[in-house]
Amino acid sequence: MKSLHHGLLVVLTSLLATQVTAQDGSYDLVLRNGRIVDGTGNPWFIGDVAVRGDRIVAVGRIETIAAKREIDATGLVIAPGFIDMHSHSDLLLLEDGNASSKIHQGVTTEVLGEGSSAGPYEGKLSPRQVKVGDKLEQWSTLGEYLELVDRSGVATNVASYVGLNNAWQAVMGESFDRPNGEQIQAMRQSVDRAMRDGAFGLSSQVMMPPGSLATTDDLVEIAKAIVPYRGIYSTHIRNEGTGVFESVKEAIEIGERAGVAVDVIHLKIADQQYWGRMNEVVALIDAARSRGVNVQANVYPYTRGNNNLASIIPPWAHEGGRDAILERLRDPEQRERLKRDILGGVEGWYNHYTAVGGDWSRMLVSGNNRFTGLTMDRVMSLRTQDKTNPDLLDELFDFLIEEQGSVSTVYAHHTEEDMNLAMTQSWCSIGSDGSAYAIEGPLRRGNPHPRNFGTFPRVLGVYARDRGLLSLEQAVQKMTSMNAAKIGLHRRGLLAPGFFADVTLFDPQQVIDRATYTDPFQYNDGIAYVIVNGTVVLDDGKHTGAHPGRAIRRGSLE
Question: DSSP letters of 448-494?
């Protein structure tokens, strides 16, 4: 815990140096008589929170003086706005800045990037183009994306990592060739530019190409680029199944050799062969921390994960991109090789098919197609009802071809017991691994994982209140100050004078998630008010349409 305590000390020192006082005796907003859970992990107390402009100016018992607005928080918890440690809202926020499914969860800051990030797009990567409103916007650097976020207007704050995939493909393109020393150096330079643009660290996804092409030595060398900026290495490890122990060790080794902090993304054991052994993963991280390696992790509170059906295709078949995958899927000889590898496995590859025991019922189609919301056993039944002795892997290949090589899929691949053990660790925080969808309009699409709508209320309602796995104060800390300290987010994550007024108010007796795997488009109960930079965005459960969020750049004191 030494590193986390040090991070909080830095934040609190910043607080004392930048206190804001209400010199003219008036406030823009006062939250009165709430149960204050300040994000430190300390016990709650009854009190008030006063806001002027975008800052908190007082916490505690506040005199009844002039305020533009008061909110009676009697019966509600007043907490720091939740910081989503692991978000994929990069492009959806440009499409619709309301960030509805996140705001309704109490999220006020999203940390973006898992292997791939919204920038840079340079070198062998073409500039990124997205339609924002009626205008086609284009950018090449992470800095340009962050500027576009500010111009477009969003409801939540936005922070980002730089993705390993971006740096790798900017140099190597779609090739699976090994990079030479000069090419690794070019990747480091790409990461360095993104860090100067404001990235909070380097994020990798080394389960699938292109990230999986990087060796441990490659990752150490590239991660060294973030050392001058005190960045964090956030990683989706190489194998969450039968290779989970070696993969956690690799993440620790990268942090130790490069001299950087590590955050393991959605820590889990995702293969039935190793279920029940999370205590061994915990022991690896505890041992690393005891010798001074700052390694932490985050989880989402669900036992199913979301990935693409194409992840069942072995890594070698991904070389050359989507068109090359489709060509291989159409080739009869290549199909036979694919079947052998899927059924028998490939050394070092995390195989989603064998991880769920080849059980089609443990795969749920969440993509936007005619089978959306159906488990794969039902999909296969519908596809083969007029066929004699069908080959189900052939059907899977045909399905992927029909969907242009991409079908979003939910896999039931880890257990409640393992997830609970990870969640309760002092170094484990909360992230959704979700995006900012909506229950209506253009962002009601597909059949997304319920974590997109329910992560944070589920932690509060199921795991803190109903099951007592966490105390209320621990749950809030894991969603606020722990994440702020982890990445070095200044003046956010606590309720204290001088901090930005990112605040969430919820009913501790009513808060609960409503989204399910088959009916995900449901907002939560119990989240009453959400305030971002001093502006009310969720007002008595209703989105105001306000867009006070900001792009937050590493090192910025704003």
Answer: --THHHHHHHHIIIIIIIIS-SS-HHHHHHHHTHHHHHHHT-TT-SS
**Looking at the 3D structure of the chain, how many domains does it have?**
2
Nearest one of 534, 466, 496 to 40, comparing CA atoms: 496
Global confidence as pTM: 0.89
Domain assignment present for 58: no
In three-state secondary structure terms, 169 is: helix
Torsion of CA 220, 225, 227, 229, to 10 degrees: -150
Express each pLDDT in 443-500 by its tens digit: 999 889 999 999 999 999 999 999 999 999 999 999 999 999 999 999 999 999 999 9
Distance CA 526, CA 510 (A): 5
Three-state secondary structure string covering 213-227: HCCHHHHHHHHHHHH
Q: Do the beta carbons of residue 207 and residue 240 sit within 8 Å?
A: yes
Rounded to whole angstroms, how far apart are CA atoms 406 and 494?
41
Tokens describing residue 188: 């480091």
Residue 28 lies in a domain: no
pLDDT of residue 306: 82
- Residue 357 has phi, psi (to 5 degrees) of 70, 25
In this structure, what DSSP letter does residue 504 have?
E
**How far is residue 13 from each of residues 66, 433, 490, 498, 545, measured CA to CA in Å?**
30, 31, 11, 11, 35
Of 120, 255, 101, which is closest to residue 192 (Cα–Cα)?
Answer: 120
Question: Do 390 and 456 belong together in one domain?
Answer: no
Q: Provide the residue range defining the domain that includes 240.
A: 79-303+414-543
Task: Write down which residue in 411, 445, 478 finishes a domain.
Answer: 411
Whole-angstrom distance between the N-terminal and C-terminal Cα of the chain? Answer: 28
**β-pairing, 542-543 with 77-80?**
unpaired
Q: Domain of 206: which CATH number?
A: 3.20.20.140
Residue type, 1: M
Amino acid at 261: A
The DSSP secondary structure of 66-100, one letter per residue, reads -EEEEEE-TT-EEEEPEEEEEE--TTHHHH-TT-H
Q: Quick check: 36 and 78 in contact, CB under 8 A?
A: yes
Spell out a b/e string for 144-161, using b for 16 or more CB atoms within 10 Å of the CB, else e: bbbebbeebebbbbbbbb
> Is residue 57 in a domain?
no
